[in-house]
Amino acid sequence: MTAPELAVPSPDGFGRMYRRSADQPPSVPSITTVIAQQPVELDGWRSYMAAKHVADHPELGALMADPSQMRRLVRTAVDASEAYARSAAERGDRVHAYAEQVALRALGRPDRVAEALEALREKGEEGFAVSVDRWWESFSVEPLAAELTVWNHTLGYAGTLDLVARINGRVCLIDYKTKGTSRDGRVKALDDKVAMQLVAGMKAEESVVDSSAGTWEPWAYGEDPLLIAVAVGETEHAAVRVNPEVRRHHWLTFCQLRRVWGARVEAAAAGRTLLPLPPPPAA
């Protein structure tokens, strides 16, 4: 069940958190917030995006003769990677919205497929919708739940699964990742971290029934579903499954990252870390 009102920014700036109902405060971190405690090196990517912004500027030749204009261009280049990341995130939201509406339509529930498709077309991104449709048809997807919010009390976290479906008679948890296209026209590969995200979803203990009333039900999809990640690109899709042999390792890593998040919150609540230190009084 779609329940976006349950996921809110942390009041202390520690990522996204979930609450049990719309009228309760957030109490546990999201799955993606926990995974984000694992450091990711993006300096090389940021440097590349800034350099690309400069190299692709249509007036680069003229600006090189004017130091003040070059400084302005360099300042705008510094923001290029952040702007690109925001654009990619917004595109991912549009693709996920379309995939959700396709699932709702298949479930026989009210949908806004046409509106979601038009939002992609307005940005010239209808190729992503085609890839979603082809994945759906080629795997003969039988949806069971779309955008299902889940909760784990034991460790203390929550999250939202893109899709729960039956494929070839097997219950599957499915996560969509919007990916770019390589120079040879193929969709780019998925990051291994998607396995941790799916394993954490698999460990759910409850799923929401009514977010406004705060009613939940026990997890209904077993302890051994097939975990599938789908890379959705403009030219094609690529589906992968999580190797059952590595699930335990990703779960243990997730548990440790959850403890890291908790320690950070506790340290922030304890007070300032660094205090001013005046010199000792003169003898």
Give the helix/strand layout.
Elements: E1 7-9, E2 16-18, E3 28-29, H1 31-35, H2 43-55, H3 60-63, H4 67-78, H5 80-106, H6 113-122, H7 126-138, E4 142-152, E5 157-167, E6 170-178, H8 193-202, E7 206-210, E8 215-218, E9 226-232, E10 237-241, H9 247-270
Parallel strand pairs: 6-9
Antiparallel strand pairs: 1-2, 2-3, 4-5, 4-7, 5-6, 7-8, 9-10
Helix pairs in contact: 2-4, 2-5, 5-6, 5-7, 8-9
Highlighted features:
7-stranded mixed β-sheet, Restrct_endonuc-II-like, alpha+beta, Lambda Exonuclease, Chain A, 283 residues, 3-stranded antiparallel β-sheet
Q: Can you give a write-up of this model?
A:
By secondary structure, this protein is an alpha+beta fold. The protein is built from 9 helices and 10 strands. It is globular. The relative contact order is 0.14. This is Cytochrome.
Structural class determined from secondary elements: alpha+beta
Return Rg in Å. Answer: 22 Å
The counted number of beta strands is: 10
Order of helices and strands: EEEHHHHHHHEEEHEEEEH
- Broad shape: globular
- Tell me the distance between the termini: 70 Å
Task: State mean pLDDT (0 to 100 scale).
Answer: 89
User: Helix content range of the residues, please?
Assistant: 40-55%
Low-confidence stretches: none
CATH level-3 fold name of the domain at 4-40 and 115-268: Lambda Exonuclease, Chain A
The number of distinct helices, counting runs of at least 4 residues, comes to 9
Which architecture of the domain at 4-40 and 115-268 would the CATH scheme give at its second level? Answer: Alpha-Beta Complex
**CATH classification class of the domain at 4-40 and 115-268:** Alpha Beta
Please state roughly what percent of the residues sit in beta strands, choosing from under 5%, 5-15%, 15-25%, 25-35%, 35-45% or over 45%. 15-25%
Main β-sheet, spatial strand arrangement: 8-7-4-5-6-9-10
The largest sheet, given as strand count, sense and whether it forms a barrel, is: 7 strands, mixed
